[in-house]
Amino acid sequence: MQTAGRTEEHPAGGDQDASDGFPEQGEGIRVSRRQFIRGAAVLSALAAAGGGWWGMTRHLALERVAVPLRGLQASLRIAMVTDTHLRSGGALQPFTNERMVSEALSMAADEQPDLFLFGGDLTSETFGGGIGSARRMIDLMAGIGPPLGSYACLGNHDMTAQSGDGILAHYASSSVRLLKDEWVVLDTSAGPLSLGGLGYCGSGYEDAAPLRETNSPRPRILLAHDPTCVLYLDDLDRIDLIVCGHTHGGQVHLPFVGAPWTPSPAYPTYYRGLKALTPRSYIYVSRGVGTVFVPLRVGSRPEVTVFDLSPLPESGEERESI
Length: 322
Ligand SMILES: [Fe+2]
Known about the structure:
Blueprint: H1 33-58, E1 61-69, E2 76-81, H2 98-110, E3 115-118, H3 131-142, E4 150-152, H4 156-159, H5 164-172, E5 176-178, E6 182-188, E7 191-197, E8 220-223, E9 241-244, E10 273-278, E11 281-285, E12 303-311
Parallel strand pairs: 1-12, 2-3, 3-4, 4-5, 7-8, 8-9, 9-11
Antiparallel strand pairs: 2-12, 6-7, 10-11
Fe (ii) ion binds at residues 83, 85, 121, 155, 246, 248, 288, 292.
């Protein structure tokens, strides 16, 4: 008779007498069947954990996001990467390495976007990244070269880095344009488009001009590191699409529970994916590429985002200038 969890061929008394039919190896090491099974189970568990870690932390997902944009005259494609937290060092260092970042940027470039956006947090000084990693990240982004250019905003790790001046200087010498609380107008095949970049303010966005000033009446897209900015938007209809990162989608995101915590006061309303602010305006929060605190993601795969923008039907009304 067999009982749950045990089998009859496992005699009581432990491993020392359990030769279990395995041939003896003379004076060599004897491995019982039970030891063999335990070893195989441990190795399988380690392999599964390693595979799970790689799949969830290093296996990039391409997220395609379709957004109808008010005032757009034709379709437009934007690729976005954010929160790389690149750290130089050997291949065994567990945080984001250059290979993963290169893969993310290649995925973005392969989509042949009209425009490329970076949402901040080039690297993390706290977790071993330095100005070398930040410069390298900017140089890698400069290699994409989409027709409408590449633009970036600063993340909190960029703003607080001791090498912050070096980051600003390297952006200034790069083809990747850093937008710091400003709007630019892009002349696109889909008509003129206003693109804003928000500086990360840390404690609040009360004085963030891009939240109140736009180059209207064009379609308006705001690149911001932190979705917290939406809490300071006095009119949710003011900006057509806000794209951001910062939260890493929670980095740990559990089934039925969601993320236990994120570093944004916009959590839990805005911390991953696409949400409508009004019937005609949206916010998208990317899970980003890298990790902080621990080099691990759970239920929150790193992503590269591709926005396929299309004209919003029946949007012929004139917008007021602000
Ligand atoms: Fe980040």
